[in-house]
Amino acid sequence: MRNRPPARRGTGKRVAVLGAGSWGTTFAKILADGGADVVVWARRPELAREIQEGKRNSDYLPGVNLPMNLRATSRLDLALAGAEQVYVSVPSQSLRDNLKLAAPHLHADATIVSLMKGVEKSSGLRMSEVIAQVLPIDPAQIAVVSGPNLALEIAKEQPTAAVVASDSLETAQAVASVARNRYFRSFVNTDVIGTEFGGVLKNLIAVAIGIVDGVGYGENTKASIITRGLVEMTDFAVAYGAHPDTLAGLAGLGDLIATSQSPLSRNNTAGRLLGQGYRLADVVKQMQQTTEGLASVGPVLELARAKGVEMPIVEQVRQVLAGTMDPKDIAPHLTTDDEPKGERTLDDQAQGGSAVRRALKRAFDQLRDGGRGARGDRP
C-alpha cells in the first residue's frame, strides 16, 4: 500500500483528510457518505492499512464500520494527489510542521479546510492564521468548520449540524455542499474569527465544567459556569473582531453545550479527572488523544490580557492546572467584588445589548447586505 495509491472507487469531488484520529476519520466518513471521493492520510502505516483494508479505526472509533469507498494511505503525496479540498485534522501544535510537509503536494487552487479547535502556543495564532502564514494561498481558499460535533456520535450517524466559515462566502458554500449528508448538515457564515474562537474557547469552559463535575458539584454550578462562560467567550471573540451572533450559534453556544455536558468530550473528561484529584501530568498520560483545551489556556489568557478582557473562568482553570488552586475551591461564576456587577458587560449594556436592539441590528445588516444576512449561519 505504501508503494501505490489505493484503488479509486469514488465518483464525487476529490478530497483529502489529513489526520486519522477520531475527528479526522469521522469527517472523512461524513464526506464519503455525502458522495465525495475521499482519501484519509494516517501517519502510522498500520492505521492506514486498517482503514483501507478493514474499514475500521479501532484505536479511535471502536465498533464503527467505515464506508467502503473511504480510502487511506500513510503517504502524503498519494493522499493529496488531485485533491480539490483538503480537510486538516491534526493536533493544533503540530499544524505548522504538517503544513510544511504537505505544501509540495498541494494543488495551487485547493481549498484548505481547518477542522481543528486550538491556538498555536508559540504565536497565539488561530489555525486559519497559521495556514495563511505557512501556505502561499489566497485567504479565500481557507475555510474552517466548527459546531457541536462529538466524533463518536456522528460516526454512529446521529444527526447534527456544523457551520463552515470563510472570508469568501462562495468558498464556504462550496465546502458546505460537500460536507453534508443525510445525518450531517452544514450551514455557512463569513465570520471566521467568531467561528474559530468559538471552537477554541468552549474547550476551556468544558474543562471547568469537568472540574466541578469531578469535585461533585451539581447542575446549578454547571449551569452557572456554562452561562457565564458564554459571556466570557463572546466578550473575548468580539474584542478580536468577531460578530456576537456567531457565539450564540452552532460554533459558540451549540458547541459549548455539547462539549461541556458529554462524557465523550476529551476536555470534559480531562477536567473531571482534575476535579477528582489527578495531577495534570497524570491526566495527560491517561488521555488517548490531544486535549486542545489544556494546551490553549495559556495562549488564550495572553490574548485576553492584550485586549483587556476579563476571563475569571479560564483564569481559575489555569490555576487548577498549575496546582495553585484546589479543585474544590473553583467557583469562577462567583464574584468577590464589593459592588454588584451587571449580568452582561458594561460595554455591552452601554451599546444597547438587548435582544430587541440586536434583532434590529441584524435586520439592518441584512438590508445592507441585500437580504443575504452575510454574518449569520445560513444553510
TrEMBL record:
Binding site for NAD(+): G19, A20, G21, S22, W23, G24, A151, R266
Keyword Lyase among UniProt keywords: no
Keywords: Cytoplasm, Lipid biosynthesis, Lipid metabolism, NAD, NADP, Nucleotide-binding, Oxidoreductase, Phospholipid biosynthesis, Phospholipid metabolism
GO cellular component: cytosol
Compositionally biased region (Basic and acidic residues): 326-347
Domain Glycerol-3-phosphate dehydrogenase NAD-dependent C-terminal: 191-330
Binding residues for substrate: K117, R266, N267
Chain sites annotated for binding NADPH: S22, W23, R43, R44, Y60, K117, A151, R266, E292
Domain of life of the native organism: Bacteria
GO MF annotation terms: glycerol-3-phosphate dehydrogenase (NAD+) activity; glycerol-3-phosphate dehydrogenase (NADP+) activity; NAD binding
Region of interest: Disordered: 324-355
Record: residues binding sn-glycerol 3-phosphate: K117, G147, K202, D255, S265, R266, N267
Entry EC no(s): 1.1.1.94
Catalytic reaction(s) noted: sn-glycerol 3-phosphate + NADP(+) = dihydroxyacetone phosphate + NADPH + H(+); sn-glycerol 3-phosphate + NAD(+) = dihydroxyacetone phosphate + NADH + H(+)
Domain Glycerol-3-phosphate dehydrogenase NAD-dependent N-terminal: 15-170
GO biological process: carbohydrate metabolic process; glycerol-3-phosphate biosynthetic process; glycerol-3-phosphate catabolic process; glycerophospholipid metabolic process; phospholipid biosynthetic process
Free-text function comment from the UniProt entry: Catalyzes the reduction of the glycolytic intermediate dihydroxyacetone phosphate (DHAP) to sn-glycerol 3-phosphate (G3P), the key precursor for phospholipid synthesis.
Similarity section: Belongs to the NAD-dependent glycerol-3-phosphate dehydrogenase family.
Protein name: Glycerol-3-phosphate dehydrogenase [NAD(P)+]
Organism: Agromyces intestinalis
Source taxonomy: Bacteria, Bacillati, Actinomycetota, Actinomycetes, Micrococcales
